[in-house]
Amino acid sequence: MGQIILFDGVCHFCQGSVQFILKRDSTCTFSFASLQGNTGKELIKQYNIGEDLNSLVLIDEDLYYVKSDAVLRICSKLRMPWKLLSVVRIVPRPIRDLIYDLVANNRYKWFGKKEICTIPSAEMRKRFLD
User: Could you say which architecture CATH assigns to the domain 3-115?
Assistant: First the structure.
């Protein structure tokens, strides 16, 4: 299955983050699925993640990661200099997640929200799961 990133498909910040990752994922490590899509909903159920999710999710083989753990693991797979951000793992998770939650809880207010998910270009569409 590889590594799949589940993201909020109606959040401008989240969609921008996906575009950021796509441009820096030179090895095409990640596939993407919106939390609102069929695949996203199935994976949430399959991994017993919980439907009241307010986080980006990284699914890597049989494990999943949320909040700052997901972000830092994603960064570790991107090209330099973004790979260096993974050293932030030395900061205790509660502190990292406090900052993550601040952004996550305000993302619609600060960055806006769409009514529908953006359709990726034909070139990138193969990396998106329904």
Answer: 3-Layer(aba) Sandwich (3.40)
